[in-house]
Each structure stands twice: as structure tokens, then as C-alpha cells.
């Protein structure tokens, strides 16, 4: 929880409101797990340095493009003190492997459209831009790779 909440605080300090610290709570993580999602943690020197959640459907964000051939990466975060060590790239590769082990063809994720640095990061990691979706007070870009 601390990693997600601290990541949210850091994003907010940069004027990026993709996440809010108060949105992260144990009940929410348990709900993900009870719905069949997988929660992954990366540990280094007895400290949690990264995390992500894999879900097997995402109709809210992917709408009519949601399908059973895809795995969806959510809540991807790396501890700020460990930036520059390629932990994020390692975690994305690991997520891709886990998705493929489930027999899925597509690796998908999304991020706020107004976060240019993160959008570029995903493109640099080989994800292709699919489209932008707009909700009430937010916009997200959808990305995938095969």
C-alpha cells in the first residue's frame, strides 16, 4: 500500500492526478485478488521496490475492445528511490511473461493521456498506442503489444 500511496503523492506533486493516495486500500487489493487478478511485488534488500496487478478483463477502460485474449497490467509502480535501475522494464517483461503463460496473445495497459513522460515510457518499451478514451474529468491512452 505504501508504494502505491507514495507513488500517488509523487504524481500529485508533479500535477499529475492519475492516482490519489486515498484510493489505495487493502480492501481494494483483496477485491482484485478475489476477482481472479494476480498481484505481483518486486523485492530488493527486503524492501518492496515495485508492483503491478494483472487482470484478465477490463471492459471499463477498453470498452468494446475488451477481450479474453488479453492480459491487462494495472497499478504498475516502482519505488522512487530505485528509479534508473530498470526495475520498471524488468517488471513489464515479467508481466508479459505471466500474461503469455496464461495463454494470452495481447499485453495491454493504459495511462493518463496528460502524462507525457509515462506515455513515452510505454512507447519506448514497445507498446503501440491504440486510442484515447475520455471519462468524466479524465482521459486515458490505451496501449498494447503482442
Distance between the termini: 30 Å
| Largest β-sheet summary | 6 strands, mixed
Question: Poorly predicted ranges (pLDDT <50, ≥5 residues)?
Answer: none
Order of helices and strands: HHEEHEHEHEE
The SS-based structural class is alpha+beta
Put simply, the count of helices is 5
Mean pLDDT: 88
In short:
The chain is α+β, with helices and mostly antiparallel strands and 146 residues long. Helices cover 34% and strands 33% of the residues. It is built from five helices and six strands; from the N terminus they run ααββαβαβαββ.
Describe it.
The structure is a single chain. The chain is of the alpha+beta class and 146 residues long. 34% of the residues lie in helices and 33% in strands. It contains 5 helices and 6 strands, in the order ααββαβαβαββ. The protein has helices at 2-13, 26-34, 59-62, 87-101, 116-124; strands spanning 38-44, 47-55, 70-78, 106-112, 128-135, 138-145. Strands 1-2-3-4-6-5 form a 6-stranded mixed beta sheet. Strand 1 and strand 2 (47-55) form a beta hairpin. The longest helix has 15 residues, at 87-101. It is globular and about 35 Å long. It starts with a helix and ends with a strand.
Amino acid at each position: 500500500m505504501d508504494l502505491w500511496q507514495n507513488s500517488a503523492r509523487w504524481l500529485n506533486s508533479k500535477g499529475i492526478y492519475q492516482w490519489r493516495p486515498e484510493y489505495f486500500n487493502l480492501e481494494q487489493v483483496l477485491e482484485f485478488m478475489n476477482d481472479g487478478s494476480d498481484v505481483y511485488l518486486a523485492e530488493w534488500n527486503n524492501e518492496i521496490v515495485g508492483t503491478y496487478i494483472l487482470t484478465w478483463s477490463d471492459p471499463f477502460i477498453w470498452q468494446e475492445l475488451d477481450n479474453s485474449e488479453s492480459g491487462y497490467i494495472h497499478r504498475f509502480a516502482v519505488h522512487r528511490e530505485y528509479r534508473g535501475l530498470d526495475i520498471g522494464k524488468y517488471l513489464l517483461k515479467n508481466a508479459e511473461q505471466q500474461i503469455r503463460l496464461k495463454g494470452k496473445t495481447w499485453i495491454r495497459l493504459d495511462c493518463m493521456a496528460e502524462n507525457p513522460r509515462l506515455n513515452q515510457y510505454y512507447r519506448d518499451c514497445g507498446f503501440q498506442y491504440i486510442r484515447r478514451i475520455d471519462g468524466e474529468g479524465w482521459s486515458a491512452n490505451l496501449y498494447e503489444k503482442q
